[in-house]
Specification:
The chain has ten helices and two strands, in the order αααββααααααα. The chain is mainly α. Strands 1-2 form a two-stranded antiparallel sheet. Helix 1 packs across helix 3, helix 5 packs across helix 8 and helix 6 packs antiparallel against helix 9. The longest helix is centred in the last third of the chain and has 24 residues. It is elongated and about 70 Å long.
């Protein structure tokens, strides 16, 4: 096992060595790393270089520096950037993630929606029906409706997750609809209307089911 850093850049090399030692099991998940002076000496680098290496691994989700307590191992693998994950993911995988997010969001929206939320849902629903062509405008109107539903759940994490998917999903939807239009625009819009009505009626189970059914149909179109 590598015990010291011998090449530049020192901070990046120190981060690599630390990660290798963590993954080798020297410091298990949840354990605290040795003190700064000890660890710097082990790696053969200065304390400022060590701090930079720790910051790099903290930014990647591997370490957590807790003031007054020390540096702890919080993951054994580097967290991959969302953009890279989504570029590699199939559109079916993205839609499966949407089902998990949006079905729950629809149920929460039915419980938590305000009058303002309901107006936004109905406004985006009407805009969605009006934008049949061109395809890009229709997709944008559709995404606006789904986002309005998620916003009505009043959960910032769910909204952020949906916003992360949007760029990947938008391009895929545009490409698919150009090649394979929706079999029945009226049936598709009716599915969205049912979802909006369930939220308006404060029926969480129905809202979740309508969201899941619609997105499952969408997923099947891609497979």
């Amino acid at each position: 096992m590598i015990s010291q850093v011998r090449r530049h850049p020192l901070a990046a090399q120190a981060a690599e060595v630390l990660l290798a030692r963590i993954q080798a099991g020297e410091w298990p998940l949840g354990h605290r790393l040795p003190g700064e002076t000890t660890l710097a000496a082990q790696l053969g680098v200065g304390r400022s270089t060590l701090r930079e290496a720790i910051r790099e691994l903290a930014g990647k989700g591997v370490l957590d520096s807790r003031q007054g307590a020390g540096v702890f191992v919080t993951a054994l693998e580097v967290t991959e950037e969302w953009d890279a994950v989504l570029r590699r993911a199939t559109i079916a995988s993205v839609i499966e993630a949407r089902i998990a997010i949006e079905a729950e969001a629809a149920a929460l929206a039915a419980q938590r929606r305000t009058a303002a939320d309901l107006r936004a849902i109905r406004r985006t629903l009407a805009a969605r029906e009006a934008h049949g062509e061109p395809v890009a405008e229709h997709v944008d109107a559709d995404m606006a409706f789904h986002r309005a539903v998620i916003v009505a759940a009043h959960n910032d994490v769910l909204t952020q997750l949906f916003d992360t998917f949007l760029p990947r999903l938008r391009l895929a939807m545009i490409d698919m609809l150009k090649i394979r239009p929706v079999p029945s625009e009226s049936a598709d819009h009716a599915a969205h209307q049912r979802l909006a009505e369930a939220i308006a009626a404060r029926a969480p189970a129905a809202a979740a089911e309508y969201s899941r059914a619609h997105l499952t149909t969408l997923k099947e179109a891609f497979t």
